[in-house]
Records
---
Amino acid sequence: MKAFHITGPTGLDALQQVDLPEPIVGPRDVLIDMKAWSLNYRDLGMPHGGYYRNDKVKRDPPMIPLSDGAGEVVAVGDEVTRFQVGDRVAGIFFQDWIGGELTDQQIGSALGGAIDGVLAERVVLPESGCVSIPESYSFQQAATLPCAAVTAWQSLTLGGLQAGQCVLMLGTGGVSIFALQFAKAFGARTIITSSSDEKLEHARRLGADVTINYREHPDWQEKVLAATDGVGVDNVIEVGGAGTLEKSIASAKTSGRVSLIGVLTGQPDQNPSPMMVLFKRLTVQGIYVGSRDMFEAMNRAITVNQIVPIIDRSFGFDETRAAYEYMRSGAHFGKVVITR
Ligand SMILES: NC(=O)c1ccc[n+]([C@@H]2O[C@H](COP(=O)([O-])OP(=O)(O)OC[C@H]3O[C@@H](n4cnc5c(N)ncnc54)[C@H](OP(=O)(O)O)[C@@H]3O)[C@@H](O)[C@H]2O)c1
């Protein structure tokens, strides 16, 4: 079968299409005929030798990339009870994180990081590492869910988001756009930033209440405060990392929450002052994707609220490298998908 390997830490040249033997189905496994995949910012780092070197999710090449994909079950092991042939499924990001609190062992089960990912025509996963995808979704739509959507879902639900509260999203990538859509479904007020007025206009069409161009307004936290009568927001979806954290902290209301998710600004050595966390009595919560229980709860909410993922562009399997390059360009709004 056709698959992709990351062959070394040498950038996109390390992304090679390979022929691999068909995977073998164990008694508790399902064999998935993969139909679509999606890219996450994390995947851009993997061909360059990893993702800021979290040892627990590091695996030496060659490895199959990507955490996110969806397909049809075409064979099941003798002891499988959760799925049958013909079911439409996606893998969960941490194969061993079913529910409860995340542990070190579970961090070591990240698809396309600690263990082989799903960018192959057929993939074997334990039945415990899969979820059914929303019935109304195409495989392409479902392929956008395992990392970005579950991350956005955990960020909003962990703090118990209430209708009428205000959420701030940074940028218009995969996590932020899912967070915007979920926050609207919760009845929250939403503020979103972007480098592009065109993307902000798109975000408004999706229901964003306040939009801020962070290029035009480098001190965007002042705009956030102005839009909230000087109070600040209840939850910041913090995907920027060290380069935006101080402004995110300034944007949060007293006793509010900063959901610490990403590293888009690079700059891991920058040290924002922790004092405002204390003075504002903030909860700064690290978010690491989510569990299978969270994924399933999110899918129920998606179905009831008829939330449809925003796919910016779709590439063929043989155009995988072009998909990575497009993702790297930052031109996208929402998700970039690969399809068979
Ligand atoms: N902790 C976790 O479990 C977890 C899970 C998923 C993702 N992440 C992290 O979250 C981040 C976002 O991931 P993603 O997959 O959603 O990325 P993505 O789709 O590639 O998002 C890229 C977008 O982020 C925006 N951006 C870039 N620099 C920015 C800045 N300085 N300020 C505000 N926005 C900025 C840009 O939006 P505009 O073009 O609109 O300016 C850019 O298009 C990444 O760092 C990723 O590693 C973490």
Note: The chain has a mean pLDDT of 95.
---
Amino acid sequence: MDTYQTMDVAVVGGGPAGLSAAVTLARSLRSVAVVDAGEPRNAPAEGAHNVLGQDGIAPRDLLAAGRREAQEYGALFHDDRAVTARRHDGGFELVLAGGTVVHARRLLLATGLVDELPDVPGVRELWGSSVLHCAYCHGWEVRGRRIGVLGTSPMSVHQAMMFRQLSEHVTLFVHTMPDPDDDAWERLAGLGVEVVDGLVRMLRTDRGVLRTVVLADGHEFPVDAVTVTPRFVARSDLFEQLGGTLTAYPMGAFVATGPMGRTDLPGVWAAGNTSDLAAMVAAAEGAGVAAATAVNADLVAEDADTAMRARAERYAVA
Ligand SMILES: Cc1cc2nc3c(=O)[nH]c(=O)nc-3n(C[C@H](O)[C@H](O)[C@H](O)COP(=O)(O)OP(=O)(O)OC[C@H]3O[C@@H](n4cnc5c(N)ncnc54)[C@H](O)[C@@H]3O)c2cc1C
């Protein structure tokens, strides 16, 4: 079992939020350990959009560049999964799946979220390519195409309207969606969104390419892309082991924080999709930077208090 020196900060998660935090902390000469299991949420996507200056960059290339920057400033990386977290000696102890133990004074959780997808054959297989959830991430790429919206939640009407901004050919498949109010039907009708009743049985592909939405009654509707509304559930094992509880909302659950990412557990911060389920890459990066500055400020205050006490003791002895 490898145990390293106590770090100032352990960052769990090496996605956009965790890497941005690591760069900010390492540039403040904080010792930082980043633990990353290497499963960023947008891994199935070809490119990350709305990333200023790097629009369309492959998600793994963006993270590789961020990791290089963090390493150049001195951050240490563990390519592993943190499986347990507990309080230890005034700070934290993480145990990684491979047996390594990391000690740190502060903990920053940037573990992202899990997209819980509707259980319809074809959805998981095409997730991130032609099964989409975010008009800002992939909307431009499917503009003007035939877009089917798989209705599973009250948000599906909103999603249909969002994608209608990008294409005249939007069909809302009611599937398991709760009944929208009259106003919603009127709006969809006004926008020319076709509404199809009935359960969806599957998405049919041909050589890996999405072709049709197949209803339970056998009817098929040609589409080029399908949008879904996953449940977004923050990865929270470590937070819960430390005594935290997730905050639920109708579309999922997240780690609640203040504006700079401080959780209600002393010494624990969260950033990115862990605490903001809607955060895109740029917002996750910003949250990582903000949380890192707050963690650094907290350590600066603690270091000043420690130095003050040490000085007072020196004078008391003299
Ligand atoms: C298909 C798809 C396409 C998208 N496209 C775009 C886009 O074009 N533009 C855009 O701005 N946004 C896009 N997004 C959203 C984007 O993925 C998120 O904004 C971004 O990933 C959030 O970053 P994060 O750092 O919070 O989490 P993540 O990127 O998910 O990173 C979390 C990291 O933490 C690691 N981790 C989790 N638990 C542990 C643990 N216990 N121990 C160690 N490591 C752990 C994970 O393995 C992962 O590497 C897309 C999302 C999806 C699903």
Note: The radius of gyration is 23 Å.
---
Amino acid sequence: MGWLEGSSVLVTGGGSGVGRAVVVRFVAEGARVVVLDRSAERLAELAAEWGDSVRTVVGDVTRYEDHVRACACAEEAFGGLDTFVGNAGLWDFARSLTDTPAEILAAGFDELFAVNVKGYLLGAKAAVPLLRRSRGSIVLTLSNASFYPGPGGGPVYTAAKHAGLGLVRQLAYELAPDIRVNAVAPGPMATGLSGPKAMGLADTTIAREVPIDRIVTERSALGVAVRAEDGVGAYVLLAARESATTTGAVIDISTTGIPRRHTSSAAPAG
Ligand SMILES: NC(=O)c1ccc[n+]([C@@H]2O[C@H](COP(=O)([O-])OP(=O)(O)OC[C@H]3O[C@@H](n4cnc5c(N)ncnc54)[C@H](O)[C@@H]3O)[C@@H](O)[C@H]2O)c1
């Protein structure tokens, strides 16, 4: 019997990358999943592959009414909602404050925060009535950029992911004791992650632009490239009833928080 047997889950951004890996694993754990994503094409693939276990809703996480439609779909198809996974996100491709023209910075901020922060807030707002009924939980996708500055983000992305951490803590406080609110913080990996149109980053992906596997292998403690499916156990754990006393927690699954240890004689001093 799976950890999430019989539970009903809504995942945003489940058409690709981390969200897709969460959907696949949750289904394997016995859950039935509604996926809200803006890509009709990716959703059609998911629906074809997973049949009755997955329902799809084409929509935009920046629009409250789209979250409401996705929640209604969960209620109608699966009888309610046990877990809301807020995950859809954009990246700023580490564009710096200094090198980004002011008007692009301003428009990029509005677009990225609308997805990465407002999208989580509105999703939670729409899901709360159903989650109160099931005494369910919220799991948000954060990032190593929720904790550390560095080359993995520009100020817009890092600020948005820090804001996500604030949301987890404030909502854990506000929604207790009925609804638990937790998060998973992945690190860099090659996915379809794209950026704000206003910054000219809508049609590219992290996998295409950045040699992520090489960077992560060279710099992270474990020395291995990470795949989206590697960290999904953390989502399962937080969504499961086994975590009934866990709220306001973040599981940091990024391997880059701990730097690679130099073992050769060429190790730098200090
Ligand atoms: N890939 C990484 O290196 C990395 C590292 C740390 C954290 N994360 C986080 O993981 C989460 C998922 O990213 P990913 O890497 O899987 O990216 P991805 O692009 O592969 O998947 C994100 C999905 O979200 C959807 N989406 C984007 N904007 C949307 C919107 N406005 N409305 C509805 N759907 C929308 C996309 O269509 C896509 O299917 C994000 O929150 C991201 O910040 C990613």
Note: The chain is about 40% helix and 15% strand.
